[in-house]
C-alpha cells in the first residue's frame, strides 16, 4: 500500500460535502441496509485488514511502542467481527434525524416545524485504535452524515485497509462511497488543513490525548466537539461511609485506569482521614495504588511521595493517585475547580446538604453522590452508542449519543404570509 | 466620566466567574426580584443615562455618522422606559434552568438526572445600540449567568452609564453586582483579550456586522454562538403564484431592509420570469427596489445594473436586490449553497415536490415555503425573548431563546454503586 503525503484535503472535504447531500435524503431503511452490508463485507474481507494491520504492528515493534499501545493497535479476526457487530448494533438504533422537536402554528396560519437533520460532514481526528475508523463511520452514516477520517500515523495501514474494504462495500449500497473519506497522510500539515475546512466540514471531533484535543481546540475554525480528558476527583467528605468511600475510590481508580472516567485525585477531609487511615492505607496497598500526596498526606500514608503541580493537573491513566487533604467542603470544591477538567466528579458523604452543595457548585458534565465516576459512559448509561464524552458546555455535554450528530432546521409552511 | 484604556480584562472575567457561582444558586424569585428592581432603577435614573448618551451623540456628530446610525445610538426617556419594560418582560418568562430534561434509574439503582444549568459567564461583544447592554444583561441574569459586556466605542459613554446605574441597583438585590462586568475600553486589544478567556468565559456572543462576527469566529478560543449575518434568498419557482411571489418578495426586501432576515437576492425561474415580467417590473419600480442582475436579467428588467461577485455574496441591508435567473430548481439550490449564509431561505411555488426538495437540500436555519423570510425572529415566532439568531449548527440554530444560555449536568445519586 502506497501512502501518499500529497493528499488533497480540501478536495476530499468537498467530495464529502457533496456526498452528504445524497446521504441526507436516504430513508432510514436504506441507511440500515448499508450498515448491515458493510458489516458483512468487513467480516468477509478480514484477511485484507489483518495483512495491513501486520505492517502497522511491524512498524510499532520497530519503534518500540509499549505493550499496552501494541495491544490497542493489534487486530484479529475476532476484533474485526466485533467491528461488524458494532455496525449491526448501530443499525438497530433509532434514527436521530427527521424527528419533529416541536411544531406550532402562528395566528396568521404559518406552520412552524423544528426538525432534526444531519449536521452534514463530520471530521474525526483520532489516535491509535483502528476501531474508531469503523465505529465513527457507522455513527456518522446512521445519522445521515458524511465523514472525513484522520487517524493516527501508527495505524495508518490498518485504517486505510478498513476504509478500502468499506468503500467496496458501499458501492453495493445506496450510500455514495464518497461519504467516507480517509486522509491517507501521516503529515501533520494535513491535519492542520482539516482544522480550517469551515466551508465543507460542519464539526470536528478529536478523540485522543489532551495534547491532540488542545491542538484542535486552539487551531480549528471548524466548530469542535471537545471530548475526553478527565482529571476526575473523588472527594471523601467528613461524613463519608468508610466502606462506600473505599469501594468507590478503588473502583474509580483501578477498574480501568487508562480511561477518561477513572479517578486521578482523592480529595479527603482531614477528620475522616484521621479516623479511617488504617482502612484507607490497607486498601491502597492491597490494590497497588501509588500515592502522590501533599505535605499532610506524607505524614500519614506510608510510601507516599510529594505531589507537585503536574500531579494535581494531569491524568495519570495508571494506578497512581494524587491525594490532597482538606479542612472542609469549600476547600475541596476550590481544588476541583482549579484542577478539574469538567468531566466527572464524585462526593462520598452521608450528609445530604454537602452533596447538594457539591452538585450545585461543581462545574462538570457528571456529578456523583456515593457512586463511582466510572458510570460516565454511553454504554453504562444505556445510550446504545457513544460518540465520545463531551467536556464542553455547548451543543452536548457528557456522554454523547447519536443526537449529538444532528442539528435542527425550522421548516415554515405558508400560503403567502408576510409581516 | 473617565474612560481608562488600562482595563484588566482577565481580572474582570475572573470576577464574573466568581459572581456566577453565587448567582447560579439563587432562586427564580430572587432573580426576578432583581430584574424588576433594575427596571425601576433604570427608569428612576434615566437622566444620568441621557447625559452620558449626549456625549456619545456629540462624538457621533463630530465623526459625521449617518442619520440611521445616530438614530440607533440615540436614547430618550421613552427608550429607557422600554429597556425597563424589557427587563420586566424577561422576569415573567419561564426560568430555563433547573429543568429535568430526562431521568432514569439504572438496574443497579443508580439514579440519573439530566438537568439544565446556567452556562456560567457570557461574553457579549456588540456594536452601536445601547439597548443590547440592558437586554443582554436581563437575559443573562434571568438564566443564572454572569455577563461580560464589550460594546462598541461609539456608545461607550451610554453603555458605561447604564452599567453604573444597574450596578447601583444590583447592590439592593441578591445578585452580586460583579455578575455584570463592563469592559470600559475602546481599545481593540481588550476585545482580543476577551477572545482568549477560555478559563473564565463560557461562551462569546457577537452581535453586529459580518466583520465583527468573522473576527470573533476566527480568533476566539472561547466557544462562540455565531449570530446574525443573513444573505437570504427568495427563489421564485416555475410554478409560483404571481401574487404570492410578488408580495413575499416585496415584504422580505422592504419591510425592514437593514435586518438579517431581509431578502438580499431574488433567484427566479426563467419561464416564470418571462410569463410575469410586467408584474414583477411594476412591483420593483413601485417599491423603489434597485436591481443588480445577471446578463439575462439586464435584458429584461429596465434600469438594472450588472451584478458582480460582491452582489451575490453580501447583504445590501438596503432596498437594493441582486437578481439571478435560473433554468431549474437545481441551479437555484446550487446558487443558494454557494452564496447563502445558512440563515433563512424561501421558495415560492405551488408545486409540493419542489418545496419538499428545497426543504431537504437547502442547508439553513429556517426554510420557507410560500412565506416571507421576515418570520425568522424570536418575537414573531413567540419565543418571548431572543438572544440572537444562530447561523451555526451546534448548540442552537435559528432564533435563540433563553434555553440557548443553558447547558446540562448529569446528576447521579447512588448508594455506593461501582462498576
UniProtKB/TrEMBL annotation, chains A, B:
Q: Name one GO molecular function term.
A: glutamate-5-semialdehyde dehydrogenase activity
Pathway linked to the protein: Amino-acid biosynthesis; L-proline biosynthesis; L-glutamate 5-semialdehyde from L-glutamate: step 2/2
UniProt KW keywords = Amino-acid biosynthesis, Cytoplasm, NADP, Oxidoreductase, Proline biosynthesis
> Which InterPro entries did the record assign?
Ald_DH/histidinol_DH, Ald_DH_C, Ald_DH_N, Aldehyde_DH_dom, G-glutamylP_reductase_CS, Glu-5-SA_DH, GPR_dom
Q: Which domain of life is it from?
A: Bacteria
- Give a Pfam family name: Aldedh
What is the annotated signal peptide range for this record? none
Q: Name one GO cellular component term.
A: cytoplasm
Question: Primary place of residence?
Answer: cytoplasm
Q: Where are the transmembrane segments?
A: none
Say which enzyme class the record assigns: oxidoreductase
Which GO BP terms, alphabetically? L-proline biosynthetic process
Asked whether the keyword DNA repair is assigned, the reply is: no
Reactions catalysed: L-glutamate 5-semialdehyde + phosphate + NADP(+) = L-glutamyl 5-phosphate + NADPH + H(+)
Aldehyde dehydrogenase domain segment(s) = 4-288
Compartments reported by the entry: Cytoplasm
Look up the EC number in the record and give it: 1.2.1.41
Q: Which CDD domains match?
A: ALDH_F18-19_ProA-GPR
Which PANTHER family does this one have? DELTA-1-PYRROLINE-5-CARBOXYLATE SYNTHASE (PTHR11063:SF8), GLUTAMATE SEMIALDEHYDE DEHYDROGENASE (PTHR11063)
- Briefly, what is this protein's role? Catalyzes the NADPH-dependent reduction of L-glutamate 5-phosphate into L-glutamate 5-semialdehyde and phosphate. The product spontaneously undergoes cyclization to form 1-pyrroline-5-carboxylate.
Family classification: Belongs to the gamma-glutamyl phosphate reductase family.
What protein name does the entry list?
Gamma-glutamyl phosphate reductase
Source species:
Halobacillus litoralis
Amino acid at each position: 500500500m502506497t501512502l501518499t503525503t500529497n493528499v488533497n484535503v480540501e478536495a476530499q472535504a468537498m467530495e464529502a460535502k457533496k456526498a452528504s447531500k445524497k446521504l441526507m435524503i436516504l430513508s432510514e431503511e436504506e441507511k440500515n441496509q448499508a450498515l448491515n452490508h458493510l458489516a458483512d463485507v468487513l467480516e468477509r474481507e478480514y484477511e485484507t485488514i489483518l495483512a495491513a494491520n501486520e505492517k502497522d504492528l511491524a512498524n510499532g515493534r520497530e519503534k518500540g511502542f509499549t505493550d499496552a499501545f501494541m495491544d490497542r493497535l493489534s487486530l484479529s479476526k475476532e476484533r474485526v467481527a466485533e467491528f461488524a457487530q458494532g455496525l449491526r448494533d448501530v443499525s438497530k438504533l433509532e434514527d436521530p434525524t427527521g424527528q419533529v422537536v416541536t411544531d406550532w402554528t402562528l395566528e396568521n396560519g404559518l406552520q412552524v416545524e423544528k426538525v432534526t437533520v444531519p449536521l452534514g460532514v463530520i471530521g474525526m481526528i483520532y489516535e491509535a485504535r483502528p476501531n474508531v475508523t469503523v465505529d465513527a463511520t457507522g455513527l456518522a452514516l446512521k445519522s445521515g452524515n458524511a465523514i472525513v477520517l484522520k487517524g493516527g500515523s501508527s495505524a495508518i495501514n490498518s485504517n486505510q485497509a478498513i476504509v478500502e474494504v468499506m468503500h467496496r462495500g458501499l458501492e453495493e449500497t445506496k450510500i455514495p462511497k464518497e461519504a467516507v473519506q480517509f486522509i491517507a497522510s501521516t503529515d501533520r500539515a494535513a491535519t492542520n488543513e482539516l482544522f480550517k475546512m469551515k466551508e465543507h466540514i460542519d464539526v470536528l471531533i478529536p478523540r485522543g490525548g489532551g495534547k491532540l484535543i488542545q491542538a484542535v481546540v486552539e487551531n480549528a475554525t471548524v466548530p469542535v466537539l471537545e471530548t475526553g480528558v478527565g482529571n476526575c476527583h473523588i472527594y471523601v467528605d467528613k461524613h463519608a461511609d468508610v466502606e462506600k468511600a473505599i469501594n468507590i475510590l478503588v473502583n474509580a481508580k483501578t477498574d480501568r485506569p487508562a480511561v477518561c472516567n477513572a479517578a486521578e485525585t482523592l480529595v479527603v477531609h482531614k477528620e475522616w482521614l484521621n479516623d479511617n487511615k488504617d482502612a484507607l492505607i490497607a486498601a491502597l496497598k492491597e490494590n497497588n495504588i501509588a500515592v502522590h500526596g501533599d505535605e499532610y498526606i506524607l505524614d500519614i500514608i506510608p510510601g507516599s511521595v510529594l505531589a507537585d503541580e503536574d500531579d494535581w493537573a494531569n491524568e495519570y491513566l495508571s494506578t497512581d493517585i494524587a491525594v490532597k487533604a482538606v479542612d472542609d467542603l469549600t476547600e475541596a470544591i476550590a481544588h476541583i475547580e482549579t484542577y478539574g477538567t469538567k468531566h466527572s466528579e464524585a462526593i462520598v458523604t452521608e450528609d445530604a446538604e454537602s452533596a447538594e452543595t457539591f452538585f450545585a457548585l461543581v462545574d462538570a458534565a457528571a456529578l456523583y453522590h456515593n457512586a463511582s465516576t466510572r458510570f460516565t459512559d454511553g454504554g453504562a448509561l444505556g445510550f446504545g452508542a457513544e460518540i465520545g464524552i463531551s467536556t464542553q458546555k455547548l451543543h452536548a455535554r457528557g456522554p454523547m449519543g447519536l443526537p449529538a450528530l444532528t442539528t435542527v432546521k425550522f421548516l415554515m409552511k405558508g400560503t403567502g404570509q408576510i409581516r
